[in-house]
Amino acid sequence: MGNRRKKQKIMSAKEKELYQMVLDSSRLNLSYTDIVSVEEARVIARALKNRRAQTRSMTLYKMNIIDEAVEIIMEALHNNVNVRYLHLLHTSITSTGAKALSQMLTANTTLNFFGLSNCSINRGNFKNLTEGMKSNSSLEQVHFTENQIGVEGAGELAKVLTSNSSIQLLSIGEEQILSRGTRSLADALAQSSLDALSLQGVRITYVGAKALAESLRNNNVLSRLHLDFNHIGDLGVRVLSENLKYNKGVKKLQLSGNSISNDGAMAIGDMLKVNSCLKALFLTDNMIGDKGTRAISDGLKTNCHLTFLDLTNNQIRKVGAKALADALKWNTKLQSLNLEDNEIGNFGVRAFAQVFKYNTTLRSCDLIGNNFIGQLGVFVLVDASKYNLYLEETLQFFFESVEFDENISDDDSSVMGSMSDEDSVLFGL
User: Is 281 helix (H, G, I), strand (E, B) or coil?
Assistant: First the structure.
């Protein structure tokens, strides 16, 4: 008797609907289901194995999925050549699930993005998972957020970086990898081809910042470094800035929410005087103030590479604004400047207005949320923006959002009267 084709189980109406959804969806989002049964997992797997399947992206969100179902779905991805993006969010991963994911990553040759967010994967299971990442040749972006991987997990990811040359971006967020885990990753950078490293809210502190800074001395491969909300402080910024002076790789640096004050800003200013690579610098939500802004402005006067600077919410007042405006008289490279949520006042606005008439490089200047601006300040800014068509468009948002403070006088003498001697010198008065 000849071989008989295995008889396919007849699908229910609900299963047919699920099958067709998987088959037709380029972006498959499975979420808020009660429990994915073994039978439903088989339907999903059957659709994924179909050559007509359109699925390019899979997101599993807040799913209560049993181990056998995970194994079935992951097995269907072993030889799948369509799915490029796989992200699991708020979906608990057991040891069985971690093993299934690891086996899938070992076998799959087309997945580009893999992410786990808030999946409660313990450190032992995470180690098993990373084994599959070491030999995968297609992964380019890896994201882990709020998974409790800890210091040990960072160490396992460091091993992945030294053995996998396809990964270009590693993002770790809200994980307590601390300074020890950061050092493991920093040591691995010397042997990796990583283009972007994002460590946001992982408590790296000064010690971790120092380890990363030392790794940048001879690393010209890493082009993007994101270290937001790590409280590295002025000491951390100083050691980073010193090692970035002659770095030829990092083009984008994010240091928002790191408790940077005047001292740290002075180190950044010194770095900008000699760095010839950095294109974008994010310093949002720090405590830089006027003195620190003046130091950064001094660096901008001679810097001819930075095109984007974000100083949102940094306690910058009229003196800092005037220093930045003066720097723009010399700087012909900066294209975007963000000064949201500061207190530059009328004098700050008028200082920028004078520069806007002559600086034709700046394309965007965001001043939304600045206090102490009267009608005269807005008037001179409107007039100056006419000389730069790009600014006329971007400043429109500021004009629409500004709320005049009736207690602010537009008379110069009233403002000058509150200025210190140092301020007056800076303003040329």
Answer: strand
